[in-house]
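Posting for a labmate who doesn't have an account.
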Amino acid sequence: MQLSRRTLAAAALILASPIGPMMASSAHADSREQATARAITALHELEESQPRARFIAHHAKAVLVFPSILKAGFVFGGETGNGVLLVHGKADGYYNISGGSWGLQIGGQDFAYALFFMTDSSLDYLRKSDGFSAGTGPSITVINAGAAAEANTTTVSQDVYAFPFNGKGLMADLTLQGTKITRIHHHD
């Protein structure tokens, strides 16, 4: 299996350091404007390819978009990426997603996640807690390739809908289990 330099470098970083500190330093690599532009582009790509996402976005209070999450590993895997909270299309905060898992896994993949906050209470929880771990806080329904056909787009009854996707569409078998979303505080 041929691994790209980016995948190998990310795997080395994930293995060599705790995920949290790595994220804080990578947040400064992108300017806020670049991060916001990438998030908006990723959200538009999702909405163009997935009518369910477009419908849910129309009713959402805010969307937290992680345009590039790198999932890589060798025995111990991890994922990490930075994102932007968009409220009415404008940046309202910057966040990091990170997680890890043990198991036999080799290689890596780059994907995006969009989390649609449907209720004021779920959005308030995100803001007041500076983030959260999956399984705590608001209920999250993941709409991946396997669950997409089951998603009911006539009602929006969940706190948060999450869509994992890449350039080919929705991804299968991705959940938010074991991940943490944390607000990035910029010090200007």
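Reply:
Got it, the structure tokens are right above this. The beta strands are 62-87, 90-117, 131-133, 140-142, 160-166, 169-170, 179-183.
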